[in-house]
Amino acid sequence: MKASKITAVDFFDDLTSSYARKRFFGGFSLLIVFCLVLVGVVKAHVTWPITNEIMVSVLIEIIAGSVIILGFYALYLYFIGASTAFREVNVTRPQDISERMIAMPKEVRHYMFWGRSGSFFRAYPLLELDRQARENKRNIVVDVLLPDPDDERLVRSYREILKALGEEPGDNPLLPNVLSTCMACAIKSSNNKHLDIKVHLSRFLPAFRVDLSDKGAILTQDDKKKSALFFDYGSEFYDMFRSTVTNERDVSREVTWDTALFAGLKLEEKSCDAKTLKAFGINVGDVDAIQQEVARLITVRPHRYG
Question: Half-sphere exposure of residue 159, counting CA atoms within 13 Å on the CB side?
Fold first, then answer.
């Protein structure tokens, strides 16, 4: 394979990122406004004609130069843009991850998620997939792979990860998140005949989150300050991660639920009761202790990309 297909970072693609556009246009716009204000101040308060003329001329040159730079940048974005057609891997800077994540579930027929908590999946991809399936009457298949909260090894490992991120986890931080994701999937799937969601519990704790759809595959980390990797749809890397997720799904425990139990329910606090919490074959323990936390996670849906 040619190196040009794999190389992920170059100067021009950096300029086409959403973060770069905002910084570029915002920075030069502020400079132009600042110079215009200075022109007005100089004309009003600098009484020496020569000094006044020199300062105004310099400021106007800066304004004109900034306008030209913005003009050429806008033309570059419109006519050229990123050279994504020539690459299969793209390093996505932290500020651009949310844009990638938002595009992943749009206009797709299959979505796969493999992660540790599913917080962002509950907050956006699941809701977007449900909306599209309803509005377009399009059948969408969703595969969700989560770590098994009944596995003590995974619980200990996840607690260490959260501590490293500066959080203070409880005894089993996997349990409320996995239950919340299962609950959200059951509610949406049971009330939308065009949405087919399958949830599996893995005995493996992934180092990355994998979101994979007809738009490509993206690998992200819990630390939102770190970059992500994006793989073009149909590339060998995309196929590799799709096979990895599929193989892990096939050897994992499938979560089943009674569709009738979740029919008519919504993502709200009253949907979370003893019956629904115990509907997934997961050891819930003290239902009263976990109920409030699960109810919060399915209604408020906090995540790292807010």
Answer: 13
Tokens of 208: 């990355």
For 134-158, the pLDDT digits (tens) are 999 999 999 999 999 999 999 999 9
CA–CA dist 75, 81 (Å, integer): 9
CB atoms within 10 A of CB 225: 7
Helix (H/G/I), strand (E/B), else coil: 127: helix
- CA dist 262 and 72 (Å) reads 55
Give this prediction's pTM: 0.75
3 state SS of 213: strand
- Could you read off the pLDDT of 78-132 as tens digits, one per residue? 777 665 554 577 888 888 888 889 999 999 999 999 998 899 999 999 999 999 9
Residue ranges per domain, the chain?
18-81, 91-299
Among left, alpha and beta (phi > 0; psi -120 to 50; other), residue 198 is beta
Range with top average pLDDT, 95-109, 173-187, 285-299: 173-187
Residues 6+ apart with CB under 8 A from 29: 70
Question: 216 and 230 in contact (C-beta within 8 Å)?
Answer: yes
State the CATH class of domain 91-299: alpha beta
Cα 203–Cα 97–Cα 123 angle in degrees, nearest 5? 60
